[in-house]
Write a structure and sequence with these properties.
12-stranded mixed sheet, globular, 11 helices, TIM Barrel
């Protein structure tokens, strides 16, 4: 379902959602303060669980810097969102990425700026991103075996990614996180190796359950595995759960005395957290996605041309269409079959 036709500036019949303090409140009472902004569909890898045609996009549909700035101002200054994550595709393929980060910090005014990347190009760019205002980087790394990395991600890039993680730590980013998608054949099987590799290092190693992506059903059935057995193994090794802020995100995080390593689990399938979801997504093509598991999109591009206030008004009107994700879990992620997660923005 595409719902963009129902959302027009100045249209009647759709009630506005009121900002409360910061962010918006949706029909289920969830406070929305976190924007995931896709800035490109292009990718330099071909990950099995995302989209095997991931490198095919040529970037012609990407929103330019000025449009991204307008969206950022709308969400941060007009709607009160305070956290922004830039996603893709692979965001580091945009040469203007430091300018985007700077615009989101200085013009939009987001108080927290994060980036999700495959890490292949991170070593050469992380210091410029840190200087522009980036505070957190999440690097995708599903295996520590070069052969498995090539099989899962379609390129011989493991060493590049490992150097990128080291560079992010050396650059002094306040938070570095390593995202491991739990695949039965690699991340799950390599769990102990990951813990050994991360021990003593000041980052968060987070294990993320595989999402059911539309068009990749057989892959999900073959590779999906729950995180519960790994949680038990972490506890056996002396890790204890950490108290986190209410809007800190869905991960359950563990730490142990004397070790800077933190271990997190994002268990969206076996332990859904939709009741406390605080995020909205804007795709690289400028569409507002109200729920990861929902099918609806609202095209924001016509409102971007009118300025931040028009964008904010369109978002307020769209919020009443946001689904109750608790009932949505069990569906595949709502994305176009030929675009995969890159079409949503991570």
């Amino acid at each position: 379902m595409r719902v963009g036709a129902a959302i027009r500036a100045g249209s009647d019949g759709v009630a506005d959602a009121e900002p409360v303090g910061t962010g918006l409140v949706d029909p289920q009472g969830r406070h929305l303060t976190y924007l995931r902004l896709g800035i490109t569909e292009r990718c330099d890898l071909r990950c099995s669980y995302c989209n095997v045609a991931g490198a095919a996009s040529d970037g012609r549909d990407e929103l330019p810097l000025d449009d991204l700035r307008t969206l950022g101002i709308a969400f941060a200054r007009e709607l009160g969102f305070h956290k922004l994550r830039l996603t893709g595709g692979e965001p580091l393929l945009r040469p203007d990425l430091p300018d985007i980060v700077r615009a989101m910090r200085d013009d939009a005014g987001f108080s927290y700026l994060a980036l999700t990347t495959n890490g292949r190009l991170l070593e050469r760019s992380v210091r410029a991103l840190r200087a522009a205002g980036l505070q957190q980087v999440n690097v995708s790394l599903d295996t520590l075996c070069a052969g498995s990395y090539r099989e899962v991600r379609g390129a011989d890039a493991l060493d590049d990614v490992l150097r990128g993680i080291d560079a992010a730590l050396d650059a002094g980013l306040p938070q570095v996180k390593v995202n491991v998608v739990l695949l039965r054949s690699v991340g799950f099987a390599e769990f102990d190796r990951f813990l050994e590799w991360g021990s003593g290092r000041p980052f968060e190693l987070r294990f993320i359950e595989l999402m059911p992506i539309h068009g990749l059903d057989e892959f999900h059935r073959r590779e999906h595995v729950g995180s519960e057995p790994l949680v038990a193994r972490v506890v056996e090794r002396g890790f204890v759960p950490q108290v986190r802020e209410p809007d800190a995100g869905p991960a359950v995080v563990y730490a142990r005395p004397g070790d800077p390593l933190r271990v997190g689990f994002v268990s969206a399938i076996t332990s859904p957290f939709c009741d406390r979801c605080n995020r909205l997504r804007v795709t690289p093509r400028g569409a507002l996605k109200l729920c990861l598991f929902g099918r609806g999109f609202v095209d924001l591009r016509p409102f971007v041309a009118q300025g931040p206030a028009a964008v904010a008004d369109a978002v307020r009107r769209a919020i009443v269409l946001r689904e109750d994700g608790i009932r949505s879990v069990g569906r595949t992620v709502g994305c176009e079959p030929d675009r995969g997660m890159r079409g949503i923005g991570g």
